[in-house]
Amino acid sequence: MAPANKRRLPRSVVETATRRAREGRTGAGDAREGSVVTTRDENEPGKDSTTTTTTTTTTAAIGSELPRASESVAAVFEYDGPIVIANTAKELDEAMGRIEAIRGDADDGSAAHCGFDMEWRVTFKKGAGESKTSLVQIAAASADLKRKVVVLARIHTAGLTRAFKRWCRDSSRGKTGFNARGDARKLARDHGVEISRVIELNALAAERFPGGCPSAPSWSLARLCEHVLGKTLPKDKTRMSNWEREKLNENQIKYAAMDAWASLMVYRALMRREVVETMGAEPYEYDPLPPAVVETSSDEDESEEDEEACAHSDDDVDDDMVNVLDNKDAKGDLTPQSAKVSGNVELTSEERVVYELHLSGMKPACIAKELGVTEHIRNVVMMPLTRALRKGCAFYYDLLDVPQDMTLWFSDFVYMNSRGPKMGDFTSQFEITPENAQIYLIMMALKFARDQERR
Known about the structure:
single chain; 455 residues; alpha/beta; 2 domains; 11 strands; exonuclease; nucleic acid binding; magnesium; 3'-5'_exonuclease_dom; 3-5_Exonuclease_domain
């Protein structure tokens, strides 16, 4: 049922974002093992080196501000330096040597920090659990950018070499990235390697931008590129590709290198901005990491938690409303996300993918189509999205496709009974399956709670 009198994103905006996301789907041939394309290395004139040069693309960034018809598209963010793919232990040690060489040439310590990112195979198979980290991207550059390199460390084949572990534990080396703390936590859980001096771009941006991201409820790496660098960071389905394949294809190589390079460039640009007074703000640098970052948990436990996260009980609605009927006078400034959440909201890879597509203006059916999902949409789309929202993330209720008559009935029920409806109340009113009923109830409870927080 199409809700009436509801504010929606313009059809042209959603269609534009969806079309641009699809334009980035074209495949590419596999790269040669241990190399990409042989080009001239600007770091060592006269010599060839194993590198690749990225090309421009007009693919819209997933999760970035939706384009408006009156706005011109920002320049595309690019990386034109060497990329080293390390498939073996020997190649990884040699690659880490290149990073150290760039640092050694800098007298002022400007090359000490590196861009940091990770990739792993994303699986949406029910009960499969999260795959282990297979790729670690490291970007390094001199202050003038005349010397630079991005290393793609395929640790699932190269292993954890002494040089790589030394870099991870080096407290004089900052590892900067978006959700870098979450990545460090996963690397410790997957491979037992603790990372020192993690620099979280999300927290750093909070010190430089009063009021948060100007164009969306929360930051992403693409939005940081847009607002800090004035460039568009291309994003497409490559993020969800198989990072454990024998040979990475050109799209994967470009995608992985761009994220690490963007992390480094955004960090340098943010450090040049004036600090905003932020009393009690979350620190952006962690050295050493908090103990929680290196806690271990099994994939089986995570899988069970994911599967049970949306299992409905009659207490779910009450939990999501969090006694808002008794606490209408919330104190302090409210953020677009839940006022009960402070700092960053940590999401799993599946939750993050679905949530960013939601923020880009897609409804559940469009998200499923974007992910290539034709069945089990509830498990692949709705459950991860619901988990993200219950953690406190901001959301567009109009995009959740909750029928308006259900929303009105829910609000009336709460005000008349001073409690949320139970499953029996809901299913007796609407002809709907219990599986869909639980999703709708949680979504409506979350909306009601956020509305109360604003009052």
